[in-house]
Amino acid sequence: MDKFHPTLIYILLFLATLFYYLFSKKHNKRHKLIAKLPPGSMGWPYIGETLQLYCKDPNIFFSDKQTRYGEIFKTHILGCPCVMLASPEASRFVLVTNADLFKPTYPKSKEKMIGPNALFFHQGEYHTQLRKLVVTSLSPESIKKFIHGIESIAISTLDSWPNGYIINTFQQMKKFSFEVGILAIFGELGKQHKEELKNNYCIVDKGYNSFPTNLPGTAYHKALTARRRLSRILEEIISERKEKKLSEKDLLGHLLNFKNDKGETLSDDQISDNIIGILFAAQDTTASALTWIIKYLHDHPKLLQAIKAEQKAIYLSNEKGNKSLTWTQTRSNMPLTYKVILESLRMASIVSFTFREAVVDVVYKGYLIPKGWKVMPLFRNIHHNPEFFNEPQNFDPNRFEVAPKPNTFLPFGTGAHSCPGNELAKLEILILIHHLVNKLRWELVGSQDMVEYSPFPVPYNGLPARIWREPDTQEIYHQKKLPK
Ligand code: HEM
């Protein structure tokens, strides 16, 4: 017989599959039996260690745990068993090399508020395709064209601060980052639509972190109602764009032109949820970074002088601010300011950690991460580990003259969900700092060493600061009209 009978082939295939299945199950079981849960305490029944986390500064909670248990430990917060990971390798394992074993996870109330189609709630094909679109729209090549627009927003934000008065720095930076977000998403947007978006987004923002009770009068209920209004405003903007058949190259233009492999386009809901999601991801993060930078510069007067000198040289070469900043200036002529941004992102670690959920039982370094448990890579612990950053409590931008070791500097995360807005964030920060240090002086008011979580860390009370206009730039800035 020179050929195998087909039945024999089927039997062999069946036996091979069965053997593989039994062997791999046994192997996994043995692996799981050997693997133990990480060290750590699960606290009280149900509430776990939630009170300890919220009564202390969360950063102290995490660093105490790391000192006690090492780089991987378990705990139980907000009704969920969690494994926390404080090493660069573990972050890479969860977010990059084994990202398919861990899915993004957010409370349902937050998902409802932003919109369930926003890309950061997803994994797989939908996420990959949308992410490609967002990454393209926010790439350096695409954001170059916004430089004049961002500059105009920065100038009008600073011009709105009355001389000698106190501002709430974080709230002012929120206004600035929201306007830049609108510019990146819509390009030019009519005044009325912009105002309506701003007013309703503000209500959503206020209710986002409130207790999710959907009863009339509560902040959460008001936020859900405003969220529905936002959908209607966005539908109007989308249908106007479709009617005018404008093929703009901003983010909305990309969303409207999107077609997946099967030729399907995005629904209006999918577009709206992603717009709100991007505004949400962009606003408080960037505003918090800017607020910290203003505080760190105030606390380090010599560094502030050096930044002023760097920015003044650009200002003078731009005919005392009469010519617009160029892309090359932001990329090549601001090296110290750029290092201040990196060091501020390390020190403040605005996104201190992120959440994922194990979709199967996973074994990491001999420890079991059970299916359904939350997994939290702790970026802040890595940024403040003396093994990777010498004297981590010192604010030292010059440490960034040498690139940090791989996976030790993660202000924008890493892997499949890393921040697609990081170039835009850095560009808008550079532009605002350029005008701020050339145009103003500031003095901090009140207590300066406490931190609030909103949920991102922000200096206490939003960093109140008294502002003065530098006399020699006052005239020029008021006359200035930037070319489009
Ligand atoms: C200093 C400012 C910013 C910081 C520190 C920051 C930080 C981060 C981090 C750490 C992540 C990853 C979260 C995770 O892995 O779970 C992320 C994701 C994201 N960020 Fe940013 N971000 C900033 C500004 C922005 C801006 C300006 C935009 C948009 C204009 C933006 C849009 C997004 C989006 C859409 C995601 C989700 C990506 C995905 O799931 O694929 N971010 N950001």
TrEMBL record:
Question: Which cofactors does this gene product need?
Answer: heme
**What InterPro entries does the entry give?**
Cyt_P450, Cyt_P450_CS, Cyt_P450_E_grp-I, Cyt_P450_sf
Q: Where are the annotated coiled coils located? A: none
EC nos: 1.14.14.137
* Gene Ontology process terms (BP): abscisic acid catabolic process; response to abscisic acid; response to water deprivation; sterol metabolic process
An example GO CC term for this entry is: membrane
Q: Which family does it belong to?
A: Belongs to the cytochrome P450 family.
Q: What is this protein called?
A: (+)-abscisic acid 8'-hydroxylase
